[in-house]
């Protein structure tokens, strides 16, 4: 395989232990409950974690992406210490038909640098006009006995691509589900294959020296995953399942705390779940996690497509699908995804990348092939939402085909995770 020489495999000692001073992060586990109209956040527990994988110099999240954000401020001075934006499964649930009849609760977690003094964490969500509204605040005393300071369960783990110290690199951890103890060798091979899918896809391929990839050898009691419509049920470590919200190919897990507990043994910015199954399916939620099945023939495309959602908040550029959400984009507001626009505020998107001669909207004709424009159809709807390119990995099943606008968004995000100035 090409570039094998660049991939330095480093076995990490797995029996290290941590004293209290070595905890770099706090993980706030909370429940996010509600229906299509109302929502509520309640703290479940606070857990000290060994690693926080970024330097404190870039504490403020620089992009206005996501439907949720947290801000951590000093309780004394009110100064902002940290912020982070993300999306959640709850947010997708809210947009389903089911949420018009029932309310449900979901596990979610956020990780923050271990605060030195008393701090306040505030959760915000967006309203229908995409403006931020405050949901909930909680005061964290870093000395509190309520903070759980256990060492994470030490499953074996490996650094399967080494770019350097986790503090200044983007760290991705691959976590298996549905691989039994006897299938761990298969997982190691699969994880290596998925590592190469990412590192050989532009623009990630230009930044191999900025990306660390880790894998965790977490075994499951049974092999495969749940397929509710086929009456197939499997007991697995992360409890993944197809058919999320009634959408056949939508593979996710609701057991978010189990995922976080498993991931805590390595430094990570991003979690990718690799599910031992040959059926096509996956999912990717911005700054939450991405997930895909291991053995479909389009696994290379699936991995980078879902990671595009997860990593750079990329929206789907297709407009025919069986996604289980209604009215995902409000036509009167500019969506936050960097690669789709309603043209309400095109300046804030990729207008600077469009030639003066290219008409907006741009007709999807051969003449404009390989031309950045604004093509109608995207974000699950045919009308009123525009995409930047005729085709892209965020539109159709083609590996290594991110359009110039998606590539720019990915490059900027790599800069954030590696502490470089973002331009
Ligand atoms: Zn694109």
CATH architectural grouping of the largest domain: 3-Layer(aba) Sandwich
**Poorly predicted ranges (pLDDT <50, ≥5 residues)?**
1-20
Q: Mind summarizing the main beta sheet? A: 7 strands, mixed
Radius of gyration, in Å, reads: 21 Å
CATH topology of the largest domain: Collagenase (Catalytic Domain)
**Per the principal axes of the C-alpha atoms, what is the gross shape?**
globular
**Approximately what portion of the residues adopt beta-strand conformation?**
25-35%
Produce the secondary structure layout.
Elements: E1 10-11, E2 25-34, E3 39-49, E4 68-74, E5 80-86, H1 89-94, E6 104-113, E7 119-126, E8 132-140, E9 147-148, E10 157-161, E11 170-177, H2 184-199, E12 211-216, E13 240-241, E14 252-253, H3 256-263, E15 270-275, E16 282-285, E17 289-293, H4 299-312, E18 375-378, E19 381-387, H5 404-417
Parallel strand pairs: 3-9, 11-12, 11-15, 15-17
Antiparallel strand pairs: 1-10, 2-3, 2-6, 4-5, 4-7, 7-8, 10-12, 13-14, 16-17, 18-19
The structure holds zinc ion (ZN).
Question: Overview of this structure, please?
Answer:
With 423 residues, the chain is an alpha+beta fold. The chain has helices at residues 89-94, 184-199, 256-263, 299-312, 404-417; strands at residues 10-11, 25-34, 39-49, 68-74, 80-86, 104-113, 119-126, 132-140, 147-148, 157-161, 170-177, 211-216, 240-241, 252-253, 270-275, 282-285, 289-293, 375-378, 381-387. The longest helix has 16 residues, at 184-199. The strands form five sheets. It has a seven-stranded mixed beta sheet with strand order 1-10-12-11-15-17-16, with helices on both faces. It has a four-stranded mixed beta sheet with strand order 6-2-3-9. The chain folds into three domains: 22-148, Immunoglobulin-like (Sandwich), CATH 2.60.40.3250; 157-312, 3-Layer(aba) Sandwich (Collagenase (Catalytic Domain)); 317-396, no CATH class. β18 (375-378) and β19 form a beta hairpin. The model is unreliable at 1-20 (pLDDT under 50). Zinc ion binds at residues 317, 339, 388-389, 392, 394, 402-403, 405-406.
